[in-house]
Amino acid sequence: MFWLLENYIRRYLQYLKIERRLSANTITAYERDLNRFITYLQTTSARDVSGLSTEIIQEFQPWLSSTTLSDNSIARTLASVRGFLNFLSNEEILRSDIDIIFTPTKLGFRLPKALSVGQTLKLVEVLSHSEVLLDMRDYALIEFLYSTGARVSEAVTLDLNQVNFDENVVVLTGKGNKTRLVPLGSKAKAALERYLVRARPHLMKSPTSRVFLNKSGKDLSRTSAFNVIQRAAKLSNIDIPVSPHTLRHCFATHLLDGGADLRVVQELLGHQSIATTQIYTKVSMEKIRETYALTHPRAL
């Protein structure tokens, strides 16, 4: 029924990949959001692009609000659909008399969850002495994530030639295929070298440049990386939700707590906007307030 619209979505996703050079993960998120739009249209009188109207488009937001999606997911979905509809308008596929207007969704501010330094070290070191091949890999992965603040997608797609052990730096490829240089800490370097020498050759079934491999010798997936962190958290008796992104939060928060300059942290994280990095200053301020409340005799 919506084959023509689905074809335009494929064209749009191709445009995002080739012209905008967005990452595969970002494009997957766009596709998921646009599929929600298709699901919504199935409840309307529209049968394809020609049936779209201002009224039908503007009723999409209330329909989203009636679902179980969070405010953040709704805001992202609306942004994805707005971008797609603007693309159709620029391509002169959408009628010129159609207005693409959504009411801005008010988002609640949520502080990123970061572990304490003590908790983080327990998580990072729980597998450090294991001689099991996969444990060597997992320890290297955890150390790498915490040492560099890398996104999980940057870690699982890391190639051997991106790691410079002589200079103790790693080249990370982030969103929009933008690269940045990040220092590699001594603990992460030692964990990586141990894994690469003692474990990876046994895991590798065919030639590959990927650093982190699964037990079948293929690229480690994002899901597998998530499971690695979950297992390490369980072994270290950390009973709060953790993920690879938790270690990125810890990386940023602990740097700022230690006195690192905000601009330096921005560069290390690969944030395009300083405003994104400033979220972590609020995390640190929360810690300051908590410490003050617990220790100053006149705080309460």
Describe this structure in words.
The longest helix has 20 residues, at 71-90. This protein has helices at residues 3-18, 24-41, 54-58, 60-65, 71-90, 117-125, 133-148, 152-156, 186-198, 200-203, 222-235, 244-257, 262-269, 274-277, 279-295; strands at residues 163-164, 169-173, 179-183. The chain has two domains: 3-90, DNA polymerase, domain 1 (Orthogonal Bundle); 117-294, hpI Integrase, Chain A. Helix 2 crosses helix 5. The radius of gyration is 23 Å and the shape is globular. With 300 residues, it is mostly helical.
SSE arrangement:
Blueprint: H1 3-18, H2 24-41, H3 54-58, H4 60-65, H5 71-90, H6 117-125, H7 133-148, H8 152-156, E1 163-164, E2 169-173, E3 179-183, H9 186-198, H10 200-203, H11 222-235, H12 244-257, H13 262-269, H14 274-277, H15 279-295
Antiparallel strand pairs: 1-2, 2-3
Helix pairs in contact: 1-2, 2-5, 7-9, 7-12, 12-15
Strand order of the largest sheet: 1-2-3
Q: Give the helices and strands as they follow along the chain.
A: HHHHHHHHEEEHHHHHHH
Unreliable residue runs: none
CATH fold type of the largest domain: hpI Integrase, Chain A
Distance N to C terminus? 64 Å
Strand content: under 5%
Q: What is the CATH homology-level superfamily of the largest domain? A: Intergrase catalytic core
Q: What's the overall average pLDDT, rounded?
A: 87
Percent of residues in helices comes to 55-70%
Number of domains: 2
Number of strands: 3
Outline, from the CA principal axes?
globular
Output the number of helix runs.
15
CATH class of the largest domain: Mainly Alpha
- Class of secondary structure makeup: mainly alpha
Identify the CATH architecture of the largest domain. Orthogonal Bundle
- The radius of gyration is 23 Å
